[in-house]
Write a structure and sequence with these properties.
Blueprint (H helix, E strand, L loop, with lengths): L1 E2 L3 H22 L3 H24 L6 H4 L3 H13 L10 H21 L18 H34 L4 H7 L1 E2 L11 H18 L1
Antiparallel strand pairs: 1-2
Subcellular location: Cell membrane
Membrane topology: Multi-pass membrane protein
Organism: Pseudidiomarina terrestris
């Protein structure tokens, strides 16, 4: 068992899980001030993850785990036949799933900046657009969150499928280790956490 995921990737993943649950709970119970605060934290995490995806540990970089269609379909064939061998980063299907997750989260964050309940709460940038645009973006915000929850459900099912195929993706994201012959090169991730904290502090100051 060798280390394949650095502390930032693992911490970011589980903080995101908790934060999305918090966003759902605060919205359902109308705790909108906390909803905004959690969203600020998610935004900081996501921006730090984008930077880590460019200059972080090699196996955490976007260019490393996003593969073309041929690799995508080849991976599905290997998984179906039982010939799948885990690698040092996300598999080709998982890489595209990560991009989809990021897209949904950024849509959620972006529309939330302009969303409003037309009574008690409006996003920090809602005043910059018309009431009609606010209403449209609010509808997208609500719809997109349902899409995000559906995708999360599919993600959980996929984890179970890989577990049945002998790959413990959940365990790897907890302890960071995977059974491989050679460990990937991992960078110290302290600066990524510092950047996330700085971004969250700045956003909290202006919007929190």
């Amino acid at each position: 068992m060798v280390k394949v995921w650095d502390s930032f990737i693992r911490g970011y993943h589980w903080l995101l899980v908790v934060a999305i649950g918090g966003l759902w709970w605060t919205a359902e119970n109308a705790y909108m001030e906390w909803h905004l605060r959690i969203a600020i934290g998610v935004g900081a995490l996501m921006l730090a993850r984008m930077m880590w995806g460019v200059a972080g540990s090699p196996n955490a970089r976007i260019a490393t785990f996003v593969k073309g269609p041929r690799a995508f379909w080849q991976h599905l064939k290997e998984l179906r036949s039982g010939n799948y061998q885990a690698g040092k980063t996300h598999n080709p299907v998982g890489g595209w799933a990560v991009l989809l997750l990021w897209s949904l989260i950024f849509v959620q964050l972006g529309t939330g900046l302009f969303a409003t309940d037309e009574i008690f709460f409006s996003g920090p940038l809602a005043s910059l657009v018309s009431s009609e645009t606010q209403s449209q973006l609010t509808d997208i915000h609500k719809l997109n969150f349902n899409v995000l929850l559906t995708f999360i459900g599919v993600h959980v099912v996929a984890i179970l499928v890989y577990r049945l195929r002998g790959e413990n993706l959940l365990g790897s994201m907890v302890h960071g280790r995977r059974k491989l012959e050679q460990a990937p090169r991992l960078y110290a991730s302290g600066w990524a956490w510092l950047m996330a904290a700085v971004l969250a502090t700045i956003a909290w100051y202006y919007w929190g």
